[in-house]
Amino acid sequence: MLTVTKIPNHVAIKIALELKKLLVDNSLLDVSQSDLEANLFKLMEKRGYGEDYINRYKMMTRFHHQRVPLVVLVCGTACTGKSTIATQLAGRLNLPNVLQTDMVYELLRTSTDAPLTSVPVWARDFDSPEELITEFCRECRVVRKGLAGDLKKAMKDGKPIIIEGIHLDPSIYFMDEEKRDDNSKMEKKVAECEKSPASVESKTERQQENELHEKRMDDSQECMSEEGGISEGLSCAKSHVISSSDSAYSKEKNPRAEDEGHKDLDLQKNNTTKKDKPAAEPIVVPIVLRMSDFDHKALLEEWTATRASRDNCLPQDHRKLINNLKLIQDYLCSFESQGLTVVDISANSFPQTLDWLHSYLLQCIERGLLAACSESPKQGGS
User: Fold this and answer.
1) Residues 153, 77 share a domain
2) Does any domain span residue 305?
3) Cβ distance 98 to 86 under 8 Å?
4) What is the pLDDT of residue 380?
5) Residues 6 or more apart in contact with residue 365 via CB below 8 angstroms
6) Is 143 buried (19+), middle (13-18) or exposed (0-12) by CB count in 10 A?
7) According to a count of CB atoms within 10 Å of the terminal CB, is the N or C end of the chain lower?
8) What is the model's pLDDT at position 159?
């Protein structure tokens, strides 16, 4: 948590050890969270890490307690530092889940009937740049379906996740945000309709119909991700729906349960209220990494030469590979006009870029928390 606030790692370790020594010396072996933080903040201020760092600590504590979902997308072509950036940010921000689209691509390609090939899209021949980008977008959509289970689980559990790789098309995730806005409007309409007088039985019946509809939609939309073996969240959601319907069926068949019918309905009503309570809006942060043409070309030539020697699927024409990757990079960067963050990567300024991304993600988390807090009173009032 200290490292998350941008305190250097070696200083964070010293402060943590000092706090431990302070508690042990004063025999404070059973301490409340508020007392722990009070002592911690004194030690932070003593070392010159005052109000700004303390506020960041409190903000991140709220973020974890409120379980606001965070999805960080690190996009870019080969050799732009995606894996390094994702790993470093995960370490700094204490985010344990890092998912690589390359791994998802291979799982889908080898374990399912997904229309994916062993030859990367940037290593194939195309008649035009438009054809290359069209195929790239198609593969990104297939990978997005493969990510559905992991994303659904992250949203449900309120756990942060970093996704990095070449198979990330920002436009797909922009569309997801638009769909989410439409869904929230629909939820408000449903809530207004449910305020009208209705019997408990009709509400229960309508809820069961909605659950069956959701199950059918999940079955049709997420079948590919289930076959890939990477959709644990979706499987858990489906088993929950099935077990709920089974229990309802058993109660209906058991006449001796009539005495407890009203209690069950009240309990079901309370559970429905909790279940229908909208989750916190996820914080989605897409980032595209871009490297200067000169540096990128040098790295790509070295990388393709290394891969070509052990990977027969790569052609020997390195200029074609580099040109294809450049086209994909230009496509990804084209979303900058829509508000997407494009970060220039350089070997000389890599630590500074990492620091900037650290601060940028903290700002995004803070804005997401403020939005979640502003939504809470409205939900409570409704």
Assistant:
1) yes
2) yes
3) yes
4) 54
5) 59, 60, 63, 68, 70, 283
6) buried
7) C
8) 87
**Residue ending a domain, choose from 31, 66, 101:** 66
Place of tokens 């230009």: 330
Q: Which domain holds residue 332?
A: 68-176+281-373
Give a yes or no: residue 229 inside a domain.
no
Could you give phi then psi for residue 343, rounded to 5 degrees? Answer: -115, 125
Name which of 308, 326, 324, 327 is nearest 316 in CA terms.
Answer: 308
In the listed set 39, 66, 93, which residue is the last one of a domain according to the structure?
Answer: 66
pLDDT of residue 246: 42
CA–chain centroid gap for 161, Å, is 4
pLDDT digits (tens, 9 = 90+) for 24-53: 999 988 899 999 999 999 999 999 999 999
Beta bridge partners of 161: 71
pLDDT the model gives residue 377? 58
Residue 128 Ramachandran class (φ > 0 left, ψ -120 to 50 alpha, else beta): beta
DSSP track, 102-166: HHHHHHHHHHS--S--SS-GGGS--SSHHHHHHHHHHHHHHHHHHTHHHHHHHHHHT--EEEESS
pLDDT of residue 219: 44
- 87 lies in the same domain as 14: no
CB 144, CB 172: distance < 8 Å:
yes
Shared domain check, 290 and 172 = yes
pLDDT < 70 stretches in the chain: 174-279, 307-317, 375-382
268 assigned to some structural domain = no
Q: Using N-to-C axis directions, what is the helix angle for 232-253 and 200-221, rounded to 10°?
A: 150
Q: Strand pairing of 161-164 and 70-75? A: parallel
Q: Are residues 122 and 7 in the same domain?
A: no
| 374: enclosing H helix or E strand | helix 350-381
Same structural domain, 309 and 319: yes
- Would 224 be classed as within a structural domain? no
Residue 301 CA: distances (Å) to CA of 260, 307, 309, 316, 318: 73, 10, 12, 11, 7
* Total domains present in the chain: 2
Other beta carbons within 10 angstroms of residue 141's beta carbon come to 13
